Every structure is written in structure tokens, then in C-alpha cells.
Amino acid sequence: MSHRLSGIAAQLYDGIKHAPILSPHGHCDAAWFASDQAFVDPAQLLVMPDHYVFRMLYSQGVPLEKLGLGGGDYDPRAVFQCFADHWHLFLGTPSRVWIEYVLYQTLGVDPLTPETAQQVYDQIAAKLATPAFRPRALYKRFGIEALATTDGALDDLADHRTSAAANWGGRIIPTFRPDALLDPTDKNFARNIEKLAQISGEDTGSFAGYLAGLRNRRAFFIKMGATATDHAIEVLHTEWVPKSEREALFQRVKAAPTPADCARFYGHMLIEMAQMSLEDGLVMQLHAGSRRNTNATILDRFGRDMGADMPVATDWVRGLEPLLSRVGNDPRLTLILFTLDEATYARELAPMAGHWPCLRLGPPWWFHDSAAGIARYFDSVVETAGYYNLAGFNDDTRAFMSIPARHDLWRRGVAAHLALMVNKRFFGIRDAEVLADQLTIGLARKTYRLEP
Amino acid sequence: MSHRLSGIAAQLYDGIKHAPILSPHGHCDAAWFASDQAFVDPAQLLVMPDHYVFRMLYSQGVPLEKLGLGGGDYDPRAVFQCFADHWHLFLGTPSRVWIEYVLYQTLGVDPLTPETAQQVYDQIAAKLATPAFRPRALYKRFGIEALATTDGALDDLADHRTSAAANWGGRIIPTFRPDALLDPTDKNFARNIEKLAQISGEDTGSFAGYLAGLRNRRAFFIKMGATATDHAIEVLHTEWVPKSEREALFQRVKAAPTPADCARFYGHMLIEMAQMSLEDGLVMQLHAGSRRNTNATILDRFGRDMGADMPVATDWVRGLEPLLSRVGNDPRLTLILFTLDEATYARELAPMAGHWPCLRLGPPWWFHDSAAGIARYFDSVVETAGYYNLAGFNDDTRAFMSIPARHDLWRRGVAAHLALMVNKRFFGIRDAEVLADQLTIGLARKTYRLEP
Amino acid sequence: MSHRLSGIAAQLYDGIKHAPILSPHGHCDAAWFASDQAFVDPAQLLVMPDHYVFRMLYSQGVPLEKLGLGGGDYDPRAVFQCFADHWHLFLGTPSRVWIEYVLYQTLGVDPLTPETAQQVYDQIAAKLATPAFRPRALYKRFGIEALATTDGALDDLADHRTSAAANWGGRIIPTFRPDALLDPTDKNFARNIEKLAQISGEDTGSFAGYLAGLRNRRAFFIKMGATATDHAIEVLHTEWVPKSEREALFQRVKAAPTPADCARFYGHMLIEMAQMSLEDGLVMQLHAGSRRNTNATILDRFGRDMGADMPVATDWVRGLEPLLSRVGNDPRLTLILFTLDEATYARELAPMAGHWPCLRLGPPWWFHDSAAGIARYFDSVVETAGYYNLAGFNDDTRAFMSIPARHDLWRRGVAAHLALMVNKRFFGIRDAEVLADQLTIGLARKTYRLEP
């Protein structure tokens, strides 16, 4: 980067680095804010819940048991030492960038090396024992203006209620994630629909009652502060099943569905969800293209979300056509798309977002939420979708401590991208400053309907 | 970009910025040059015919009716004001770069803002009323040496004839686009084949007569100056249907074809077209991977080409293998490929163009005809295909006024790319200057057989 | 590149440019080192064996016969002149960079132009006649510490034996390539299995005897120095066929297999090969996604490997899942993946390598082994896979003279990438120096089990 270019980037970054943080999509636990208890230990803070971290260690031959995973007792000092011993594996990864930010900016500890691991452990543990490092205090110190969790549709949201009742000044809101009620391949699908009946008071034995039950839960989530739903699907498929077939299909998928039945049903229900969004205003999020649990051995021993989910190619154009052809022209709908297939950025997603009024593009997701990933994202989407069809940033993390680090990486990426554009004379510094602000927080507030 | 790098780029750009313009593929209307009437108003000049413009506005909630589309009366001042009010949406897009060039370089008007919209409107309208802004005058001022339109195979090319007869000094040539006669999914397919009989005098009731009719039309286009054909296909498929099956297949696709019949027939006809090119020398163009009219609501209300065509993934290697295995080694054939799937640049297209004598790669097409798109194109294709398997540039536009702007964006991209290569010591400035000239006009002249 | 950036790159390159060369995968001929005869002539040295070279010439209309290919007599001076006459076609390609290195650094001849071709020919011929340009002398001058060839499983490895017996100081090792015994679509498949019986002494009439024969050959290759196997597959498919079906499937694929049988059998055998690697420690290499011999005319006239192999899209996640679910968690296995589909770098390969203990990513392969290809590779894989899940570099060439040129291009790419990372503050210069050394030779030694 030339002097001129890095000068512009620095100027733009200075203007946004202290902006408030909005976290409209992620996987933090509302219980942290309900109870406000201290984090347990450095291993549980930085290593054990972070699938980016333990997947890398596992890929280099470290058994997951050595990282305290799989249940049972663990020695947090030994876990932390193991992590430090393999710290060089993370060179070049966003995980290293994030964790360095947490260690040196947020926690203010000494440089981490295999030799200093126990000393750094002690320093972190000492911090965690202070009131300043409790969840609510950190929330305020981080400058968060709202934080959305992701919650099963049957969740009673008790922790959200407790947190809100404590009136501590934070805004912790739920997100409606109904997949376990929509996707017949979920092994508890039929049981979940029975639970829906109990919780909603609707007779979910019929398709109409099932829809009523879902409406009931959406209304409850809205009452608890939700502004959005979230869906995940491996192979994107939407389909509007004719009315005459729905009841029979519903009964089949509860009993003995074929794979084709399952795909049709879930594909239909995504459209039903979009239609409910027209009525109740919940922003819809769609995460497509992650093949879950590809390592059966790890799944059996350690459960889900252990680093073995893998991206696959996604056909957004054909996959979403039935949904869009029903609801895509309706200005009441906002549908945010997240992909793991970067080949679709310029080929499909930017052209689609540059046409359909309902569509917004989510930020780089998961493996692509990195410096180069962010650069590729801007490079590929902006020229066709512009900036105003983007959904801004969300950190999508369950690692609460890393939230400022992740937003900081994004903000640096925004500044670097906009500086390039100014240097190429696409626009001047004034426009760049407005866009920097939009990409930092403005677009996320508007897209997720979370204006303060 | 460092000083050294931008210095080389500037030197290369200086050498090509005033080169003549060759426009060997595009969608201008020959009638403009036949009648040489003034453009109607600023809205019809810049907003209403440009699907890049109205698709972006539509994606942000502007109804197409507000842009004067859909037929009926419209208020050009209101349309232009609406466009100006949303001018910020185009930040970062090539549309903004092109339109700024048109406004400030070609038309020489004041900066466009929501506040200045009416004043700018007046300035444009005043220009359009002068003889210097009539089509023929602009053609000369733009330094165009030839401009190809795209014309249905049944077109009588009356406007081309009128323009040529006027002997005004411009070279407006047709391009043979026979898809409506080849693709059985065209809803007028059978009727078109009857028209072909009337126009060509051949009995198109038989497959042999149908081929003769097509040959007749190709000869007519050649007589009118055509040097190329053009084809579009969503899912690339070519197939050499055995002789014994052709007549029956031809009869079936005219009557009640299955989707498989349609794909086979069109796939076979692409090979027939390539074979006719061996005889008559027409350069063949193939645009693959655009899924047309994905928004049924817009199609019903506003018709085709309203911004809802979306790119899909394309398999060039398998899709083209049957065609290439019949004619690909014949030095008489030139076949230019255009893709909307950038993942195929390095994976398929560059390796194919670096082997088959007939193949040339078209420039970045449609959504990829942008600064970053051009950079990705060079980055992905040159190392395997070299420069001499590229077809040079074509603007592919129906926005006549923007032609210099589009060629200028390409020329800047050429200079930026070649400067990078010089900086990486791939070659020196002398070679770069030769390549700059080739990419600006030499390769296009040669590939399209349009040497002056 | 700014001054600072090019300064860091130069510093890193200086530290690795003279490092030893390890060539753990390639297609040199062991006979060269067994006989140590001089290379025949400049045409056979630089033009005729290099499919990168003759495919480009062919793509621009040069008949392969003019390049001395297709058997029979040829005039080496005419071939070399033809190559020089078209030297400009290679501007921007790695072939030109490699050959310039060979001409000017390795051979030290005058600049090549159409006019100087015969003089350069004489200069090269004179060099080749000297002892310093015999294979063994070049091996030592190039600083090669080991060089692996690729050999059919039925090969007697006589040349390797001769080379080793000569005790000349070089390490020429074979690689076990059994595809002709595993892939039923090989037209000599059944005959090869009979030969396996003769060579191994096992009764390959049964599936169990066939497996024993393969084990026997693996043991022989290991005795001859092999540390790795190699497999190529067009459409990646692995499948664990139930025990009860294997014998019947084996008998069918020897007699009259269906395409589905062939895919199942080869897919199963890839897993058997991985399981044998658990026992005998051979590193497994998998090259997927090359569609072979797409030009039937060229295949009939000139045979295989004539520049008409084309990359196709590859589904690594689903294709490899059955293999990985059986052996992927076993720390004894090393499986190196090579792709021609760059879209899978960030989407599939980096996430997979960042999880599975057995996986390592091969360097950019074939068409992607170029300056921009190397940059894209690092840009796409490092952030998710880190550096330590990469397999380092291998040149994969049959052009022995170009080996230093190819390693040099890679080392420049490594330095350029790491300088970018230092400039973006991912890590400091000390870490970059360690990584440069790893990427140059450390990772290749470790991955291929070729520590000196």
C-alpha cells in the first residue's frame, strides 16, 4: 500500500473505530447477562468454546480431549498450555488477530508464548475475577448498543426476561430460529411439533394448527424484543407446495418422510415464513450451504458444532426463485442472505440484491470473516449491488470477549476497501466517510430494524 | 498503487486513450443512424433504456412506473429527478463511472445532485437539441470505426440499408442472431420457422429446407456487412444428433417438444451454425449462463430485459465438448465465448482457449464489465490463455451515449493491468505498449474480421 | 508495491532463494539419471516435451506436426525457429517466465527473438554437449536433495535401481501410481490385473488376491525408496462398498462394467489405498478434476497428454466424505489434495484441511502454478487452513531443466505473499522468515516424509 493509500485508510478508520457496536446476529448466551457471573477460567474463555481454535488444533493432531472437550473434568492450565504450545499454527488466521486483540487490547496481558503461558493464564484469571470483566460491564465497556442471541422457537426466553427485568442498561434481544420445527430431517421433528402444541396452545395436529402455532411463537419473540428470524439450510431449495397437497405432506413428514418429502416441506415452510414476515415485520435471515457434521466419529463422541461443518456450492438463483417469485417484490420483506460459496458473490448474490427489493447481502460469513475474505467480498459485490443493498456487519460469534476484535477487523477492512476506491477515483473522501459510517453501523441498524 | 506503478499505468493509458473505437458487439438501434433524429429527452437518454440503472433503483424500492417504464405517458423531468434523488445508490458501481463520464466529459454539464437535477436536465436537453448531439455526429466525434448491432435472423435490416445508402461515413453493420429460429422454447418458434420460409423462399417444412433457409439468411446478413453471429443459452449444451433422428426431432420440436427435445435440438443447431461458419466465415459468439426473466411479476407487467436476468454456473468443458470435437480444430472457425461465471475464467475458459485453435475469450460480460471485474479477468485468464487468445473489448451496450465511457473504463483497466505486469517484471514497457494497443483495438479488429 | 513492501519481499526472498530444492512430486524420467546421457537437442529440451508450450502454439494455429510431434523425423532447428517466431504469444504466462530463467540464468544464452533463434539454438546445443549439462551434473548444480518420479505400479523400476547402484550422490525415488490397476475405465484394466499376478506372484483372480498383489507392489516401491502414492480422478467419488458386494463387483468390472460399477469400484479402491497407507506409511496424493483428452482428433493422432486435458468443477466435501469418515481421523495417514478448481480453495479445501488431521493442501497445480495463481492460493487458503496444513511446494514437471525456474517462481510468490502479511501486521518479519523457510522446503520435507 502506498503512503497516499494508507493515509486515506487511516483517516477513514479513525472516523469509525470508536463507533458503537451493533451485534444483530450471533450466538452469545443470554444467561451470561441474566446472571452476570464471572467467566470461569481462561481455557473456557478463549479455547474451549471457540470452534475456530479447536478445529485448527485438531487438524494438527491435538486430540479434542486434551482441550477439555467431550465432558468430564479438565485441567484449565493444561488446556491453556496446549493452546499456547500450538500458537504458531494460527499465524495468518483471523483467529490469531482476534485473540491478540483480546489478549493485548481487551485484557492487557503479556505476550503469549509457550514459555509465558502460565503467567498469562494467571494474568487473565486475575482480570476475570474483577467486576470490570463481568458480562454486563464488558457489554458497556465494549460500547454495544444491542446484541441479538439466536434461540430455538420453543425456548421460553427466561434469560432474556431476567436480563431485561434487571434493567441494567443493556439490550439483549432474541432471534427466532424455528428450523427444528420446519426441517423434517431434524431427529426430534415430530416431538418438537408436539411441544409446539403445548407451548402455543394450538392444535398442531393439522397443518393449519401448526402454522398457527408458529405464528404464536413469532408473536412471543417479537414481544421479547426480536426483530429477526434465522434459518440454516444445506442445499438451498424453496418450493410452493399446492394447497391441496400440504396437509398430506405435513402428515407424511411427521411419520415416515422420504428425503424428497423433507426437502419439499422445508422448502415450502421457508416461503410460509417469508409470508409471515410480511405480516409481522420480522427480518428474515438465510444461511445456506453448510454441510453439517461431516465427521461422524467426532459427532458421536463430542456432538454438534465441533469444527466438522463444511461449505458446499450453492445455487442461489434457482434455489430462491420460488420464494422470490411469491414475495420478493413486496417492500415489507427484508431477506438477508449469507453464503459460504464466494463464487456466488459476483455471479449470483450481487445481481440478485441489485434487483429484488427484499434482498440484502449479509457480510462475509464464518470462514470468510477475515481480512482477505472481507476484501474479496467488497471486490466482488459492490460494483453490482452497490453499498446500500448490503446488510452491514454482524459478528455471528459465541465468543463474547472477541466481539470488539471482530468489529475492529471489519472496520479496518472497510477503511482499506474504501481507501482503494478513493484511490481509484470512484468517489471522494467525503462520500467515503459517509459509506464508512453506513458500513460500520448505519446499514446494520436499518436492515435489522434496530434504530436506537 | 505506488508512484512507479501509477506512472507506468498513466504512460500506457496515454498511448491508447485516443485510439479509435471499435464496437463489434452491442445493442444499439440501427434506426438511430438511419434517421439521425435527436435523442428525445434526458430521461430517455440516461435512465429509461439502461437496465443497470433501473434495476438498482428498483432494488431500493423505487417502482418501475416512477421511472417512466411500462408504457404510457411519463414526465421526463420527474423521472430524471427520481434518478438524481437516488444517485448515491450508484456509488462504487460502473454505472456511476460511466454516467459521470457522459455527464461531465461528453455532455459537459454541472455536477449532478438532487438539488441540481432540474438544472442539469435543462443543460442536457439543450445539448440534445443541437446538431452536434445527433447520432451520426456523435458517432464521428466518438471516433468509432465500426459499430455492430444485434438483429433477429428474420429482420429485413431496412435501417442498415438506409444508413448505408445515406453514405454519411459511418459503418453500422448487423449481427446475425438466429436464436428465435433455433431454440424451441421460444414461444414463437414454429411461427418463426414459417416466416423463415416466406422470407428465404425455402420450404422449411423439412429439416433440410430449414437449414437452407438459415443459410439464405446468413448470406443476406453477410451481404449487408455482417461478420458475426450471436447466440445466447442458459444451460450450455451441445450435441451432435445422429442424422437418422434429425428430421423426426425437427418435427417434434415444432409440435409438442419435451424439455429434453428442446435442449437436444438447440444443442445440435449450435453445431450446425458452427459448421455453416466454416463455410461462410461468420465469426460465432456464444453468451452462456444467463437465466432470463426470473421475476415473473416484472415480466408480466414490463416485459423482457427489465433487470431480472440472473447469472448461473456454467460447465464450459462438458457443455462445449461435442461442438469442439466436430469443428474445434478447424482454423477457419472463430468462436468467442462470454461467461457470467467468473469461476470458469481460470478453471475452464483460459485452459480451453489455450488449446483449441477456434476459441477466443470475450471480455468481461455484463455484471463483470467493471474496474474490479476487468482486473479479475486479466488476473485469471492471461497466465494460461496469453493475450492473443483474447477477443479484445466490446461494449455490448444499448446506451449509445455511454460507448466512449465504457471503452475508457476498459482502457484504464488495460493500463492498470499491464502496469502491474511490468512492475512484476513479466515484460518491459515496450511489450506492454504493443499489448495495450492490441487489447484496445487490434485483437478486436482481428477476431471480428473487421480490419479497416 | 510500495517501497516498504518490496523491501520486505526482497529480504524474505534473499533468505530462501538459495535453499536446497526438494522435488517430491513430478514426472521426470529416472532413465535420465540412470544413463546420464546428454539431452538431445534444444527442440527436445525446451519445446517438444512441454505441453504448456505446444498447447499455446496449437491454440494459435500452429500444427503439432510443425513442432516435431506425432512421431517420425523432425528438424530440430525448424522446430526451435517456429517456437521463437511465436515467442510473443507467451507474454504474461509462467511458461515465458520459466523459459526465460532457463535461457538466461541456467543456460546463459543471448536474448531469444525470431531473428536470433538459430544463434541461440547453437549456443544451447553447445552447452548440452558439455559434461556440466548432463542430468546428474545439473541435479547437483540445481541443489536438489531428492527428486521423486511418478511410476506405474507394474513398473520394474530398473532405472531407479541403476541410478541408485551408480552411487552418484543423487536421490531419485519412485512414486506409486496404481490407477491403471484401480480404475476399470482404463482400457487395459483386466490385462493389467493379470500382469499384477505375474509380477507379484499373487492370484489376482479374487478380490483378496488382488489386494494382496497391490500390497506386494507397495512394499516393492517402498524398498526402492518411495514415500508416496499418487492418484488422479476426474469426478471425485469415494465409497465404501459393503464386504458382501466386493467380490462380485470386482468380477464385473473386469468383464463388462457399467459406468456406475466403474465409479463405485474406483471409489472403493481409493479407500482401500488409504487403509494400506495406514499400515505401510505411504503418503497419499490425490489429483482431482482433470477431464482427460477432450480433443478426440488430437488423441487419435498424437496420443495422451497433448494439451487437451481440461479442468472441471470438483465437489471435495461430498466426494471425499466416505473416505474421510473411515480413515480421516487416523494420525498415521497423510493425504495431500490437489485441485484445478480454485473456487474450492476457500470454500472447501481450506476448511477441510483446517479440521481433518490427515489432510494437507498441495500447492497450486498445473494451470494455477503461476504468479497470480500462487497469490490467489495464499489469499484463499491461509486464513482458514493456516500455513502448517499446507504441503509446501512441488514442481510437478517433466521439464527437468525448468525445475529451478519453477521453484524460483514459487519462492518469489512466497516472499511476496509474506511481505503483504507483514505489511498488514498479521505477523512480524521474524515469523515471516520462519514461514518462508517452511514454505520453501520444511513443509515439503515433513509432509512427504523426506527429511534428509
Topology readout:
The structure is a homotrimer of 452-residue chains.
Chain A: H1 3-16, E1 21-23, H2 30-35, H3 42-46, H4 51-59, H5 76-85, H6 94-106, H7 117-128, H8 135-141, E2 144-148, E3 151-152, H9 158-166, E4 172-173, E5 176-177, H10 179-182, H11 189-200, H12 207-223, E6 228-233, H13 243-255, H14 259-280, E7 283-288, E8 290-291, H15 296-302, E9 310-311, H16 316-327, E10 335-339, H17 343-353, E11 359-361, H18 371-385, H19 403-423, H20 429-447
Helix pairs in contact in A: 1-19, 1-20, 6-19, 11-12, 14-16, 17-18, 18-19, 19-20
Distance between the termini of chain A: 37 Å
Low-confidence stretches of chain A are none
In CATH terms, the superfamily of the largest domain in chain A is Metal-dependent hydrolases
Strands of the largest sheet of chain A, in order across it?
Answer: 6-7-10-11
Largest sheet of chain A: 4 strands, parallel
- The count of β-strands of chain A is 11
Q: Could you name the CATH topology of the largest domain in chain A?
A: TIM Barrel
